[in-house]
Amino acid sequence: MLRALCLLAVVAACGESGPEPVVDAGPAPLPATRAAQLILVVDDSGGNQEEQDELVDVVPALIRSLLNGRWTPDDFGPVFDFPPVTDLRIAVLGHDMGTGGFEVPTCREPRFGDDGLFSNIGNVAAGPLCEASYPRFRRLGAGDGALESVIQGVECVSQRGVGGCGFEQPLESLLKAVTPASSMLRVQEGTRGHADGAHAGCFREDAVLAVLFMATEDDCSAADPGIFDPRSESYPGDLNIRCFNYPEAIHPVARYVEGLQAVSDPRRIVFVPLVGVPAALVPEPEVTPDWSALRAEPVLQARVNPDDDTSLLQSCSVPGRGRAFPPPRILAVADGLAAAGAHTGLASTCGEDYRPAAESLVRNIAAAMEAVP
How do strand 87-93 and strand 138-140 relate by DSSP bridges? Predict the structure, then answer.
């Protein structure tokens, strides 16, 4: 922060009545940027195949719109224009951060899971054009001849399947992915972030950090991995609702609000949750959500199902697609980031399709690239 300080010649500079009050000049101006880092956080736990398919359907329009500076969701013409992104870096991230070494059904790597690393495995079962592996992130510019192959790669990597760990920790995964090893932040078993290691070259200091955060359940980023122990005496009860029953074992939301601000000016952050919020509660893509009002909605309060004490009540569902549950922690992160000056939007996994999610992301990235006086 720039502050006006009285340092020299108390009488001459500050007057005989004493020093003048310290004045907070506010955040420093930001020049316009045309660079963006786009991270697609994808839920690969059971029951999310249709949601992944819907997300993949909007990936081409999302990427082309950012590079062309024109949102074109279909054949009916542009919705709006903006200065195009000239340096776009794209990565896909999963939810699995392991289960503290405890063997848990559906969690294939109990110690670290995917470890907050950007996905590089292509789903060869998704189609004949999918390769077995890809770079952890891809970089594109306007007029790049590799556009179509990059889009294909992002689609293949985003189709992660539904065999992922049932203990979703997407907030911790995101934080580890974007945090440099030089940070004081420590993750599971005292490990450090990947931003200047495995993800070196993905991040630019002046770029917009944009996150599309797809999840059908709330985050369960554990401070105490003992919560994952099926035989735990400290955290007894059904594994399905451990994270709800023992919030003291989960990292506070402030860890993620503050952690993301530590790696990017909040005015350059875009955070769009694509989560289990009923579609009727989601504002239009050009409207900033009223996060406080949303978080107070009864349907978005996590509660145990009175007819099944091993599960929570659903927040929304779509026939033929699946169900979703309240995401209070994810909404709280969005609320905290918005209060700090970040650009935020909202979309529903229970919507008819995911074009509103892509449009919200594009609109917010365009706004975050603008100069701030």
Answer: antiparallel
Whole-prediction pTM value?
0.91
Higher pLDDT among residues 75 and 109, named by residue: 109
Distances (CA, A) of 220 to 215, 268, 285: 12, 26, 27
pLDDT of residue 16: 46
Q: What is the 3-state secondary structure (H, E, C) of 44-80?
A: CCCCCHHHHHHHHHHHHHHHHHHHHCEECCCCCCCCE
Sign of CA dihedral 28, 84, 264, 357: positive
- Residue 327 CA: distances (Å) to CA of 154, 250, 332: 26, 14, 9
d(CA 199, CA 355): 28
Tokens linked to 300: 């978005």
* pLDDT given for residue 175 in this prediction: 98
pLDDT, tens digit, 9 for 90 and up, residues 331-347: 999 999 999 999 999 99
Task: Report pLDDT for 73.
Answer: 67
63 alpha carbon, distance to own chain's centre: 17
Report helix, strand or coil for 93.
strand
Give backbone dihedrals phi and psi of 38, rounded to 5 degrees, phi first.
-110, 120
Distance from C-alpha of 64 to C-alpha of 77, rounded to nearest angstrom: 14
* Contact between residue 330 and residue 215 where contact means Cβ atoms under 8 Å apart: yes
Helix intervals (H) in 238-310? 242-245, 254-263, 291-295
